[in-house]
Amino acid sequence: MIELYLFLAFMIIAAIVATEIKDLLSAVISLGAVGFSVAIMFILIQAPDLAIVQIVIEVLTIVIFIAVISRTTHID
Q1: How far apart are CA 41 and CA 37, in angstroms?
Q2: Exposure winner among 12, 15, 69, 70, fewest CB in 10 A?
Q3: How many other CB atoms are found less than 10 A from the CB of residue 32?
Q4: Which positions ≥6 away from 52 have C-beta within 8 Å?
Q5: Confidence grade of residue 1 (pLDDT, cut at 50, 70, 90)
Q6: What is the DSSP code (8-state) at residue 1?
């Protein structure tokens, strides 16, 4: 049970970092950490099918976000 609370705390911290950080790539990586933490929580509550779906969706989302970020121009 303590593992769930640790991953929940990690998810909250990573979500705050994702919203507060200025670098888009770092924000996407932090958002990916939140998604993978959700997948680990699914594994901990004995729901491996949901964990697999979460990982697949998270990987696709991260790839799409990085592709979109790489195609945008950087303006300060």
Answers
A1: 6
A2: 70
A3: 19
A4: none
A5: confident
A6: -
Q: Extract the tokens encoding 41.
A: 């929580």
Angle between helices 24-44 and 48-71 in degrees, nearest 10:
170
Tens digit of each residue's pLDDT (9 = 90 or more) over 23-58 = 889 999 999 999 999 999 999 999 999 999 999 999
Query: b or e along 7-27 (b: 16 or more beta carbons within 10 Å of the residue's beta carbon)?
Result: beebbeebeebbeeeeeeeeb
Would you state the pLDDT for residue 7? Answer: 84
The answer to whether the CB of 36 falls within 8 A of the CB of 13 is no
Q: What is the CA radius of gyration of the chain?
A: 14
Instruction: Say which residue the tokens 């705050």 belong to.
Output: 16
Query: Which amino acid, 39?
Result: A
Query: 5-18 pLDDT, tens per residue?
Result: 998 999 999 999 99
